[in-house]
Amino acid sequence: MLKDSSTTQPFWAKPYFIAIIYIVLALVISIRELISFPHIDNFIAFRNGFAHLIEGKNLYGHYYQEYNTLFNYGPTFAALMSIFWVLPFGLSAVVWNVIMVLVMFYSIRQMPIGEKAKTFILLFSLHELFTAVLNFQTNPAIAGIIILTFVFLEKEMPFWAAAVLTLGILTKLYPAIAGAFFLLYRKQFWRFTGSFAFWTIVWVALPLFFVSPSHLVWLYQEWYSNLLGHSQRVSMTVMGVLTMLSGYPVSNGVVILPAILLFLSMYLKYRYFDEIRFKLLFLASMLLFVVIFNPGSESPTYIIAFVGVAIWLAQIPTWGRIHWVWAILVLILGSLSTTDIVPTYYRRLYVYDYQLKALPYILTWCWVMYDVWTYRGDLVAEKVG
């Protein structure tokens, strides 16, 4: 379905036009939110993270006089927010969202797939991107970092793969899952390992421009404690769905440990590590896994998983009726269900209380894993789409 049959594209499928859509989306949403709700909690927490860093405060304390959320990111991220701290608040918020969408756009445009596949992924993900941008979240860039790790390894550029991966890990930890790619690129192992060590030192030490070594060590200890607190949550995940269905709390460990083993079972298909379609299945599984089994996941996080669904759909050589139905189902239940299209009462009862949004992603991950286990080699051209 997504194989390129000609070199011509309609104007709405041109890369520059989609880039304009992404930028305009970020601009319009940012400006609208700044006018309607000028106290943007998430971005205030991000931006003030730098202020707390240079003031020698605990990044992970409660600052309810400033914002009603918590700063859950690494000290490196707080240091990088210095770029936004020097700008006026409104301008910095707009620039933030534009950067987030462009990182995601760029990563997808760099994927080793055809133009139709890239266009499909970018446009299919547009509505879920809207949710992430509306909340001024890092998640579009997190999705981009995971994809760029794959892209740079595929292009035999392990130095830059390690750069984006370590930056992602020291920002939100989610991209750590992209480290699983290194076994698919065994020939780059030593260059990647050396580059990973180099960039880890660079990014870990970055806050030293603003704080003392002892204070930085303490901040990393506090970040670790903060992450442990997140691991005890049960949110919009597999664990949340099982808790809802059973009526009893389901331990995260009981679910996550078997899930990790299932994820690692993809390595048993080592004979297909050099095939692009298998790598895309691996990437899709990764983007879904890091959200549906993550206790810290919430609705805006699902842009990461949604891109995983889009990549999985894009690599299917020929769509059947079931794939069309499934794409529509994911779009409705997995994205539109959290909007005002669904009345507030039903949205709170079914989408949130019953974790309905997570369900299509969980089922898609199961389908992706089935495709991995039954994979028998690439039946189409080397470049998908």
Describe this structure in words.
The chain is 63% helix and 0% strand. With 385 residues, it is mainly α. Helix 1 packs parallel to helix 7 (126-134). The mean pLDDT is 89.
Summarize this structure briefly:
The protein is an all-alpha fold.
Key traits:
385 residues; mainly alpha; 2 domains; 0% strand
What percent of the residues sit in helical stretches (DSSP H or I)?
Answer: 55-70%
Q: Gyration radius, to the nearest Å?
A: 21 Å
Cα distance spanning the termini = 8 Å
Number of helices: 18
- Net shape: globular
Q: What are the secondary-structure elements, in order, as H or E? A: HHHHHHHHHHHHHHHHHH
Mean pLDDT: 89
Number of domains: 2
The main pleated sheet reads as: none
In percent terms, what proportion of residues is strand?
under 5%
Task: Give the topology.
Blueprint: H1 15-36, H2 41-54, H3 75-80, H4 82-85, H5 89-109, H6 115-124, H7 126-134, H8 139-154, H9 158-172, H10 189-205, H11 213-230, H12 238-246, H13 252-264, H14 276-292, H15 302-314, H16 321-334, H17 344-353, H18 358-373
Helix pairs in contact: 1-5, 1-7, 5-8, 6-15, 8-9, 8-15, 9-10, 14-15, 14-18, 15-16, 15-18, 16-18
